[in-house]
Amino acid sequence: MNRQVDSSDSAVALSEVVVVDNYQPYGRLQHRYAAYESTSYSENNEGKDRWGTLKLAYKTLGVVFGGLVTSPLYVYPSMPLKSPTEEDYLGIYSIMFWTLSLIGVVKYACIALKADDQGEGGTFALYSLLCRNLNIGILSPKHANSNSSVTPSQLNGGTEKQSSLGKFFERSIVARRVLLFIAILGMCMIIGDGILTPAISVLSAIDGVRAPFPSINKTMVETISATVLIVIFLLQKFGTSRVSFLFSPIMGAWTLFTPLVGIYSIIHYYPSIFKAISPHYIFHFFSRNGKEGWLLLGGTVLCITGSEALFADLGHFNRKSIQIAFLFTIYPSLVLTYAGQTAYLIRNPNDHDDGFYKFIPTAIYWPIFVVSTLAAIVASQSLISATFSVIKQSVVLDYFPRVKVVHTSPSKEGEVYSPEVNYILMVLCVAVILIFGDGKDIGNAFGVVVSLVMLITTILLTLVMITIWRTPFLLVALYFCVFFGMEGVYVSAVFTKIPEGGWIPFAISFILAFIMFGWFYGRQRKIEYELTHKITLDRLRPLLSSPSVQRVPGLCFFYTKIQDGLTPVLGHYIKNTKSLHKVTVFTTLRYLLIPKVAPHERIVIKKLGLKGLYGCVIQYGYADRLNLEGNDFVSQVTNSLLEHIQNSLDSFPSDPIETQEHISDLEEAKDAGVVHVRGKTRFYVGKSCGWFDRTMLAFYEVLHSNCRSALPALQVPLSQRMEVGMLYEA
């Protein structure tokens, strides 16, 4: 369970509990975790056999692909078509076919899924992967500090030299900040996607009831859609597995029925539709329509909406299951469905405003309406799950205020649910429908989100190819030119829609970015103060040697946030209480820049050189959960301490009496009582502070006072908790 490091009586900083010359946790964790992955991870997530993978692939239909496979509901209605011709429709279908093939199949299914960070996907996972391998160390001051003694060669196993681009990022603070901004923007856009996908999917599906019942107005459709969305969000607490198992049959029916209708439409209206696969129809389309054709890209880009969930939801499933489901069901279904829609519209060119329901044969209209409504509900699930994943990643990496994260599966670490985030998403989704009920406005906003997230993923993947995979230059150039060029054109088209609803995701992203920046700025200032005023062992010795300071009975877990020394709260505590427990364990909860930490690497123990004082670092990756609870946590740490002391006896057998005394002191302290002490610090903003510091630190204090504490995650009993207040001067 624990990893002991060499004991010595010299004064050491707490960071040396984790990072010393003869102990590089990142380098060793990389190799040890790889072995752990090959047994534990492959067993749990890759499926024990072929049927297990197929079952998992079936479940992905209900979570991962909902937004993507239901896009035919709103793609054509979102396009501002004016008197379209047969050639126009053939060009539009050609654009959608190649968008699905290149971005969906090549970029996401074949390339992006291989860039997972040991099971986790999404833009923040890509950023974390780059940080670990480039040794950028910008995720937060505490991570940057703790990474300082780990070299890139250790991260890469010592076999490869750092690339020139990697060295550039290490040298340039501006480049690192730009990379951080790109990752934050991508995360904010995915959250925006989690708001807009449910809104546009459900609204587009429910709108189909107006065709057979003209008396139903738009207000009633919006009310029904809002009610359906509320029910969807209330179901989230049951977890991804239960929801996906419930939703997957619905998506299976949708994925089967819509291409069958598409095949019927192709045969009945335009059998030669697949000639549009030829790219020359794209060139003819733009040569005929010019600027109008370019503006229509804001609607065609929606055919690939939800593709980011394919990558972001990777932690909920695995690569093989997602690839099987996409390549053998989702992709063929979309190609045939869009072909059927286009074939119908070629013969009925003015029905594009209701391009989905109009091409459904009358005899099966109501069954398809029911399935499409249920499928739209499922579509909401894919981006909601992805939003939970990216929020959790940013919380544990200290870039977002702490919110409650519930693990809804005992076997899959990636399945998470956040009550606060869930209800905020619910309110925003309902607000988008009630305020911006026009499907075209929401579609414009959706296009901005889809194109920007795709572009950001392309940029980060290019960096991964160059700095980590060491892909040949020609292949990287081909990848970048094709996808950056294609997605750049899409972005340029959707940006013209900002005044027409496209501002919605920017407003959401700005609010989220402001929250993230305010939180990060406050955390950075707090860490800077603690590093400046840290308590070293050289300062601790005279404090404890003072005759007025007593060593009281009991076992104390004193929580410290920094690893390069001890928290200033310790000095404040000793000076005012004139005491310290006989056995004190300075405990740090530390998130490493890897998704998961092997159980035997979880607890790291170090003797600090003063009697009864120990350092303990509990290490977690961003995909791990804190599963140490109450007395179980105390038992695990004390057992690790006893094992460490016993190992010291084996190393230094000449002093068994002192070792036995340490063991007796620990057992007596545990019997006398356990207390958990943490600092509750606030900023004191003096008159010398500028307006920027006053504003940002005041905002941080608001966030900090309303977010959750990290200590309850260990399930420490209330009767054993103690908080020591202290003001940090800004």
From TrEMBL:
Residues 57-539 form the K+ potassium transporter integral membrane domain. The chain crosses the membrane at residues 56-77, 89-110, 178-200, 220-238, 245-267, 293-312, 324-344, 364-384, 421-439, 445-466, 473-496, 502-521. The keyword Membrane applies. One of its GO terms (cellular component) is plasma membrane. NCBIfam families: kup. Signal peptide: none annotated. Its main location: membrane. This is Potassium transporter. GO terms for molecular function: potassium ion transmembrane transporter activity. Potassium transporter. It holds the Pfam family K_trans_C. Belongs to the HAK/KUP transporter (TC 2.A.72.3) family. It is found in: Cell membrane; Membrane. Residues 553-728 form the K+ potassium transporter C-terminal domain. It is a multi-pass membrane protein. PANTHER family: OSMOTIC STRESS POTASSIUM TRANSPORTER, POTASSIUM TRANSPORTER 17-RELATED. InterPro entries: K+_transporter (IPR003855), K_trans_C (IPR053952), K_trans_N (IPR053951). It comes from Ziziphus jujuba (Chinese jujube). Keywords: Ion transport, Membrane, Potassium, Potassium transport, Transmembrane, Transmembrane helix, Transport.
